[in-house]
Amino acid sequence: MPSLLYKSLTDYNSPLFRTQFLNVSAASPPSPPPPNWNLSCRITSQSMSCSSETPLPTLRTVTIPYYELKDKDADLSLKIEEGFGPNGLGILSITDVPEFPSLRRNLLCLSSRLAALPEDVKKELEDPQSRYNFGWSHGKEQLESGKPDLLKGSFYANPLIDVPTNDTYLIQRYPSYCGANIWPLAALPELEVAFKALGKLIFDVGLMVAYHCDQYVSRGMKMRKDEGLEQILLRSRCHKGRLLYYFPAQLRMYQVKYDVTCSNHEENGDSMSSWCGWHTDHGSLTGLTCAMFKRNDVEISCPDSAAGLYIRTRSGEIVKATFGENEIAYQIGETTEILSQGYLCATPHGVRAPKGKEASGVDRSTFALFMQPDWDEKLNFSEDVYIHKELIPSNDSLTFGEYSEMLLDKYYHKKT
């Protein structure tokens, strides 16, 4: 199926746009729009595989070449706005990052080997105290339906620090961040090396993305240097990598599942999140790799063009977002939206599994690095905050640790 097209009607660099819509001279540097500012756009689309579905568009992420990103004098505000601003998808990708393709392949190829370890070995890698946020996790997280997620297994670790703290109180208070990494040193020793190498690279590139986000946000709001996203991430000990393995699909299961989800797609949107439920990352910045698909341990292309990452836009439209195999994608999290007062915006997203006969026996591997504030970083919530308003008192301040523990209560069993 040919690629679907997305094109903004607005040329951000056009002097006509700059003078008539932004009310600035064509030579003036651009500044961020207010958070409720809307641009019109045109989206052309074609039907996906399920005939009963409404047409859905596919959007290519905004891309920034690595050589531009590492230049601190480069003005990337337009691209930051296009990807992360109020009218963006909350995602952009970085191209041509040195060493990334090999580091991605090295780690993703280990996910199936990890999942195939004996059950007693994987049991030793579990950490119930952290609510399975360190080590191996399978069937512990709840789906949107409230049922356990059995479709995928995860391995969590901090790729930068093995032991964030030795403070017993903090380990008990914030076990999902202050616990220690658990590596399969005997069963799969190469996992630690590959996990840390890819995680560190995505973190370093993410800091560059954060620097340019700060330059963009500072044009619209006042903030001290230590309040910027880059500095918040630099001083944090809470970063967490997640290696995901989606187990091979069985044809019958997918036929039954999609017979239901296709017929109910317009009511509940479940078919758009059949592999990973709708959610919005609650951290600051998430680094993502493109998924790797395999059948019988042989790498293949994704067997269904409709499968992949779906995003719900600020206007409520569901779109598919794509980026290249050798690109690192970054998504904005809720914490950054809060601290930037809406200049950088997070979006709900989910992953749709491939369906049909060609999807039988296919597994999927990917990696995400959740870059987030330290557990004691103060988050100030304004009166007009709308994110998780049911959990957060207006005009109140919580630490990131307190905030995230509240959210974990929604998706895992509450701590006893």
TrEMBL record:
It comes from the Eukaryota. The keyword Metal-binding applies. Keywords: Iron, Metal-binding, Oxidoreductase. Residues 257-373 form the Fe2OG dioxygenase domain. Signal peptide: none annotated. The keyword Iron applies. InterPro entries: IPNS-like_sf (IPR027443), Oxoglu/Fe-dep_dioxygenase_dom (IPR005123). One of its GO terms (molecular function) is oxidoreductase activity. Belongs to the iron/ascorbate-dependent oxidoreductase family. This is Fe2OG dioxygenase domain-containing protein.
